[in-house]
TrEMBL record:
It comes from Chitinophaga pollutisoli. The gene is glgB. Keywords: Carbohydrate metabolism, Glycogen biosynthesis, Glycogen metabolism, Glycosyltransferase, Transferase. NCBIfam families: branching_enzym, PRK05402.1, PRK12313.1. InterPro entries: A-amylase/branching_C, Branching_enzy, GH, GH13_cat_dom, GlgB, GlgB_N_E_set_prok, Glyco_hydro_13_N, Glyco_hydro_b. This is 1,4-alpha-glucan branching enzyme GlgB. Gene3D superfamilies: Glycosidases, Golgi alpha-mannosidase II, Immunoglobulins.
Length: 662
């Protein structure tokens, strides 16, 4: 692709006003653009950098602009000029911004190109366009001139999505890796369904399951399938594996028409060292920290953005806003925030450099995240940002003006770790770990938490969800239904990885597809039906979401029966709604189990994980359950049947006032 050939004659579409040079001096940048770019404040660089088709002096062509401050020479090479490195040389701007630009007549859409860069040291590099909207299908690495024109049909959704994304609304997320949800041939990892196919298959499935949101694992262009999309080279381009940018936009549009919000997994933490990518872009450490104590990720063998360089901050800020602006994305889940804000993340003593105050916080990354969130919520107040942050760092989901990072939500990693560790234990021994399953409520309202059971929990030998559960086959499914019941009634929003909803029996493999054949077995199909019922419960009962980030929305009711591993708590809505949840963590059913409650109103069972329709044993509570005088220090008792390894969910049914006579 980089072989030099004689320059080819460009086609003449129109008669220009004068004979144009191979590259004409032209710019889309204003003085204000340069000022904002160099101040780290520009959030629309995608309108300036990259390739942009336009007409100049009567001649159609393409304007190119690239940032390469350490370059001595930059040219555009591509299939339009036989990859000739000397025929189309860009002009350096006079303002010392490090931007090279120019208009090339005759370059049309869908043409391959790269930048040839000769650094000040003499090193020669051939780089893809950091702002390209389309790339060749890997393993090819050229950028493609393209437009992002798409006629959106989701105006009604965009007008009302603020309500769907509200922290006082139910948010249940289905996490998806587009390449491995389904495949045309499960044994052929080179074939994919397209964005168009996904619109036909995935959209109705997510809607049928009752999820309110879908989250795509990274879809920006990446060279290596095994990175799952987390090591990017094309930050402004939906991956060509599944189709065109317009087809990706149509997929988002289809979800919006189905009433489902789309969250994108966004990766501002690191990037790989592929020759055509950002690493040493102009022969210098352009995008990454030069000091490898800050600039290299030992966990992922990748490089860290220099959050202290204003031009890099503008790049990342523009990238976050790009997906929200051009693709109507409804939220960004920001990957690896802990690695961004901690200088000592996964680094041994002596292998990291403290900040100016002697601490381990990356002050530049913290400053960037605050600026990013403030800008996002300023321009798109009806979206959400969600942090994957695994430490106890203060205020991740608190407003910037209160000293927080400004995210809308934070993944509750502590809940996930404690919960999975507890459920892996034999029920016989769970009484010794009672505090482990209750501890999350000690900090549940310190942040706006999302409860994640993500892809990370079903790979690298961690086993699929169903095989984390102890016991025989029946007990495994009962335990998993119990875990999901606990998850969907615990304060916080929810995220479930694809395949977990039906109990896939193999670890997730990005080269294949989910084990859909398992749905022919009642155990798996009924587990999926149960998850659908949990989504229906969560999205319809205000007590489960209207105060999901407020301590007023939760109350422990029965916590002391550690011996029998029984938990009872209440979820309360802003308008007085009450949901009572009783969990029996052992396989021993409890008949006529009394629970002291403060309410005298009757309750009705609205969900039971042990019901026969979910493949349970049928220990359920029928009819209206009336409280009786209390015997254990509470005004009232309610007498329940607690199923083995089961969850009972009850709704308070206030007595209707009697109608008076006229």
């Amino acid at each position: 692709m980089t072989t030099q050939h004689p320059s080819k004659q460009l086609p003449a579409d129109e008669e220009p006003f004068r004979k144009l040079q191979p590259v004409e001096p032209f710019s889309l940048f204003s003085a204000r653009d340069i000022e904002l770019f160099q101040a780290g404040q520009h959030d629309r660089l995608y309108e300036k950098f990259g390739s942009h088709g336009l007409t100049y002096e009567g001649k159609h062509g393409t304007y190119f602009a690239v940032w390469a401050p350490n370059a001595a020479f930059v040219s555009v090479i591509g299939d339009f000029n036989g990859w000739n490195i000397y025929s189309h040389t860009l002009f350096p701007r006079w303002d010392k911004s490090g931007i090279w630009e120019g208009f090339i007549p005759g370059v049309k859409e869908q043409q391959l190109y790269k930048y040839f860069i000769r650094s000040n040291s003499g090193e020669e590099l051939r780089k893809g366009d950091p702002f390209a909207n389309s790339w060749e299908l890997r393993p090819q690495t050229a950028s493609i001139t393209s437009k992002l024109e798409y006629k959106w049909k989701d105006a009604a959704w965009m007008k009302k999505r603020g309500e769907k994304n509200s922290l006082k609304s139910p948010i249940s997320v289905y996490e998806v890796h587009l390449g491995s949800w389904r495949r045309p041939d499960p044994d052929d990892h080179e074939r994919f369904y397209t964005y168009r196919d996904m619109a036909a298959m995935l959209v109705p499935y997510v809607k049928e399951m009752g999820f309110t949101h879908v989250e795509f694992m990274p879809v920006a262009e990446h060279p290596f399938d095994g990175s799952w999309g987390y090591q990017l080279t094309g930050f402004f381009a939906p991956t060509s594996r599944y189709g065109t940018p317009q087809e990706f936009a149509a997929l988002v549009d289809a979800f919006h028409h189905a009433g489902i919000a789309v969250i994108l997994d966004w990766v501002p933490s690191h990037f790989p060292y592929d020759d055509h990518g950002l690493y040493r872009f102009d022969g210098s450490h352009c995008y990454e920290y030069a000091d490898m104590r800050k600039g290299f990720h030992p966990d992922w063998n990748s490089y860290v953005f220099n959050y202290g360089r204003n031009e890099v901050r503008s790049f990342l800020l523009s990238n976050a806003l790009f997906w929200l602006d051009r693709f109507h994305i409804d939220g960004l889940r920001v990957d690896a925030v802990a690695s961004m804000i901690h200088l000592d993340y996964s680094r041994k003593p002596g292998s990291w450099e403290p900040n100016v105050h002697g601490g381990a916080e990356n002050l530049e990354a913290i400053s960037f995240l605050k600026e990013m969130n403030a800008r996002i919520y300023e321009r798109f107040p009806d979206v959400q940002t969600i942090a994957e942050e695994s430490t106890s760092f203060y205020g991740v989901s608190r407003p910037v003006f209160l000293g927080g990072l400004g995210f809308g939500m934070k993944w509750m990693m502590g809940w996930m770790n404690d919960t999975l560790d507890y459920f892996k234990k034999d029920p016989l021994y769970r009484k010794w770990y009672h505090n482990q399953i209750t501890f999350s409520m000690m900090y549940a309202f310190s942040e706006n938490f999302m409860l994640p059971l993500s892809h990370d929990e079903v790979v690298h030998g961690k086993s699929p969800m169903i095989y984390k559960m102890p016991g025989d086959d029946w007990q495994k499914f009962a335990n998993l239904r119990l875990l999901y019941s606990y998850m969907f009634t615990h304060p916080g929003t929810k995220l479930l990885f694809m395949g977990d909803e039906f109990g896939d029996t193999k670890e997730w493999n990005f080269k294949s597809e989910l084990g859909w054949q398992l749905l022919q077995h009642p155990t798996h199909s009924r587990l999926r039906d149960f998850v659908k019922a949990l989504n229906q419960l969560y999205t319809s009962e205000k007590a489960l979401f209207s105060q999901q980030f407020d301590p007023a929305g939760f109350e422990w009711i029965h916590l002391a029966d550690q011996e029998n591993s029984i938990l009872v708590y209440a979820r309360k809505g802003a308008e007085g709604e009450v949901i009572l949840v009783a969990l029996n963590m052992t396989p021993i059913p409890r008949e006529e189990y009394p629970i002291g409650i403060p309410w005298g109103e009757p309750f009705r069972e609205i969900l039971n994980s042990d019901a026969p329709e979910w493949h349970g044993s049928g220990v359920v509570n029928m009819g209206l359950l009336h409280p009786v005088p209390g015997r254990f220090g509470r005004p009232f008792d309610i007498i329940l049947r607690l199923p083995p390894l089961g969850a009972v969910v009850l709704r308070m049914e206030p007595a209707k006032p009697k109608k008076g006579r006229k």
